[in-house]
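User: Okay, second chain of the day. Same drill as before: sequence in, structure tokens out.
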Amino acid sequence: MQGALMDQKGRIKTLWHLSWPAIIEQVLGTMVSYVDTAMVGTLGAAGTAAVSVNAAPTWLINGILVGVGVGYSVQVSNAVGAGDEARAKSVIRQSFLAALVCGLIACLIYEGISGSLPRWLGAKPEVFPHAVNYLRIYAAALPLAAFLAIFSAVLRCMGNTKAPLLFNTAANLLNVVLNFFFIYPTRERWGFTIPGAGWGVEGAGIATAISIAAAGAATGFAAFRQGRFTTSLKEGIRPDRSIIRRAVGLGLPSAAERATINLGQIATTALVAHMSTVALAANQIATTAEGLCYLPAYGIGYAAIALVGQSVGAGKREDAEAYGNLTAGLGFLLCLVTGTALFLSAPPLASLFNTDPNVVAEAALALRVVAFAEPFFGLSIILTNALRGGDDVRFPMAVGLVCMWLVRVPLAYLLVLRFEFGLEGVWGAMAVDLTLRGILCAVRWKRGKWVRLCGLES
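Assistant: Same drill. Structure tokens below.
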């Protein structure tokens, strides 16, 4: 009993060591995105809507890149757990190839469709030109956005959550500073003349692209300088079929899951866009504000995939199970607290991002509708990562497909078009989806099929 207690204390200490930088990274990133949204919000509902209509497409490509990162980061965590330095270094070098190829392909595709995509998503005439320009500018940064997504995952699964914290935080702060000069024209403030480009929404896009590019380059460099796992492209970057094959097996379902979810978000964004510019602006504000709730879950989820993956690599089933249970319980409780805070503070929180009372009222209502689902959403985020660490990557994909396309999307269209619920109908459907997703992931983890999939079954 005493030994088990000491083991659990050790796990909690390890979990905290990996989680706190990731949680702070998420909090600071969201705080900066709050400022970013508020700064664009001063341009009015049309300015917010121009960014909002592109939110789902940017989530889509980032989600796919994160899925690619899973394919390589899980292999790194397994190699670290097994103490196989040569394998870990090889996977890191192969990650460079994956980031380069995927980033360039994403850039070419998004540049090609940027002139039409906002129209497909229902952007109004006053929104469309700015939305197109924003997406084109963002697409130019996608090659280095791939480095940021993939190498952040690799670093976290090596046990280094501080480097992604540093680089992502610096990038977010840079984004705010650049916004300050790019969005607004030259003006007088506090007795000083503050220079400004006055580029509006396009200025926000340029600031975002520069910040992402800087963070991606720094994160890629750091991944190659990790103590005993330090490596170099000079050691060889010829494609390794075994690593790529396993990366596809692990990453493709994860990328497909993110694509499934994000395409569903695009479908619901299109539904919102056809309501009104006010509804689209309110949807963007509510989406940004809601991010506050699940920040702890993402931070803990990064630790979950690293710790479960390393335990699997070391052949320690008890540790893998314990880390999954521990992270899930902690994430559920934290998201219960943040969900309660979101419900209570919804109106003043929404008012931080827009001065239009109609936009604020709709955003606050959406936040209160979804607040009840946040603990289950946190559970799904963490256990999805834990399952991936245990090589169970297909189940989260199936859950994402079912909950998004058989529950959220049809329910949202039904509530809006048939029962005329408006934006709250879209967010009500989202709450049902998130709750079901959390329950299904919890059942899957408890049943333990992942133990057989990762080879730990005794």
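The CA atoms of residues 407 and 433 lie 6 Å apart.

User: Thanks, on to the next one.
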